[in-house]
Amino acid sequence: MQKLTLIFSDTEFGEGNATDDFVEDELLIETISKNFHYGKEYPIDFIFNGDTFDFLKAPYKGKYPRHITEKISLWKIEEIRKAHPLFFTTLTECLKTNKQSRIIFIHGNHDFDLEFEGLQKRLKEIITKDKEEQKRILFPGFEFTDGQIHIEHGSQLDEFFKVEPDKLVYNSPNQIVGEPFLLSPWGYNAIYEHYIAIKEKFPLIERLNPRARTIELLPFKLKRKILGGTLWYLLKVFFWTQWKHKEDPLYHFTLPEFKKYMYNFFKGEYEIKVDRHAKRKLKRNNFKAICFGHTHRPRLWKIKGKWMLNTGNWRDEYQLNEKEKMYYPKVKSYAYILHDEKEIQKIELKKIKSKQKAISIKEIKDYARKIPLVPN
To answer: Does the model's pTM come out above 0.85?
Structure first.
């Protein structure tokens, strides 16, 4: 049976607060809706390939608790729903494009929370009350293979965010918080303790690319806080904090991890790299295409008769033009794949121009100078 698979990655829907990096609701809705007419010819799989929801940077009642329980995740999804109602309404319409059309949510490193069964149930209820339609909303975990196409977010190919799927929900034997919580990687928790305070004061900081060059352009005091503060945090956590909370697995910071983070810090390497691992996976398996996101770098290329496709991202991001001293909004993108079980008839990386305005280096510097530098 021929079908159309549409893949969107890294939308990062948040709660509408300062740390919410998704701003172009109408553009995404318009893009998804323009594909609805294909449902008259064949079923459509609407695949949201990880980091669909930004539970990671979404606060819980104004705070960022380290131990994420199902209760916390359920609270957050309601706030995300309030902030982006059009998206959830559009998901309802996706299921009506064809009686066999499906919505598929794949886990990413910003939405580990999708592992909770209660959250899956609630998402289905939000999207549709129809029990039969709910059966066409799938949560396959960290990866999904359909015929000749393999799809995964990419965080499992990333040494900093890879987790053991069957151990993601930690049933605390010593009742650390009294109920199961997400056993997220160390870097995930470091964001809560260190980075999120910077993010709340300077929301654009991680949306500006390239990151290393952006940090160079910042005023000295802010640059010192970001780099010096990060180094101090790494040392403090390794030599003190993890021993203070040695009974809690979320505080564990092993020597190999410490070395890995320190190496990247001193090397000034702030970009995520997973292409090599994706290429190896493609070679070792029988599927003809591997689709992933995570790095926010859209690209479609062919390797020995097989396809590699990075679907890019939809969150708000900018790319520096050194010559013009301007940060221009990055192009949005998604995958369009027409296929059946045995063959891929058409595979494209569709690009959509952002409607955001460019930002000058001067504006970034002026804003950065106004940020109050208080201790973490």
So the answer is: yes
R_g of the chain, CA atoms, integer Å: 21
- How many independent structural domains does the chain possess? 1
CA atoms within 13 A on the CB side of 51: 27
Query: Is 48 inside a domain boundary?
Result: yes
Domain-located, residue 41: yes
pLDDT at res. 269: 64
User: What order do you get walking across the sheet with 299-303 strand by strand?
Assistant: 143-146, 149-152, 289-292, 306-310, 299-303
Domain interval for residue 7: 3-182+271-356
Strands 332-339 and 3-8: antiparallel
Look up the CATH number of the domain holding residue 343.
Answer: 3.60.21.10
CB 208 within 8 Å of CB 356: no
Work out the mean pLDDT of the chain and round it to a whole number. 93
- Nearest to residue 52, comparing CAs of 76, 34, 17? 76
pLDDT, position 376 = 43
Contact between 28 and 170 under an 8 Å Cβ cutoff? The reply is no
